[in-house]
Amino acid sequence: MKAFIFDLDGTLIDSLADLAEAINRMLEARGYPRQPLGVFPKYVGDGVRALVERALPPETLATEDIEARVNEYQKHYHDTWKSETRPYVGIEEALQGLHERGMKLAVLSNKPHAFTLLCCKHFFPDTPFEIVLGARSGVPKKPDPAGAFEICKALGVEPSECAYIGDSGIDMQLAVNAGMLAVGVKWGFRGETELRDNGAAEIVTTPDDIVCLVSGVC
User: What pTM, to 2 d.p., does this model score?
Assistant: First the structure.
């Protein structure tokens, strides 16, 4: 391996409560019931539009202005994004350990690009990510490998020299589609079964285990 590319939400940061609160503020403003926190792990991962569509009452989807609701959600998220969100315990040390071993570091997320940059800058100010990409207009979202290939080109590495680390089936599909080592994390929003069913070649239980993929010794 020469590079490690990370998903953001559910992999580097535990952001579920703040995502949920922003959605619930949008729902309340429209007169819809709030959603319990426990449903949000299955709502996130496919981009902001999918998150909003899953949170809205199903019977409203045919008549709702989804783009307007997405914009409302993002306005609320601008107020909530760092209220309770924190890096997972041990992840900063793992990133430093990878960097010390000569690994190039990057982030590829389906979170909107501006928020992806904001979160990485705020929560990981000392981590030398060489490139950070979120969801951008005109670029297919994960599991399409376009973003992953863009990162490889920027880093000067081949996909086969990269590991992609994430917490969802979408992340594992992305890694497989890009020809990267698919590494699933057990501490995220989804479960081990979903990770394995979608192509995870490695499952890690703690952030330290990611560093072990480089050294082979824990």
Answer: 0.96
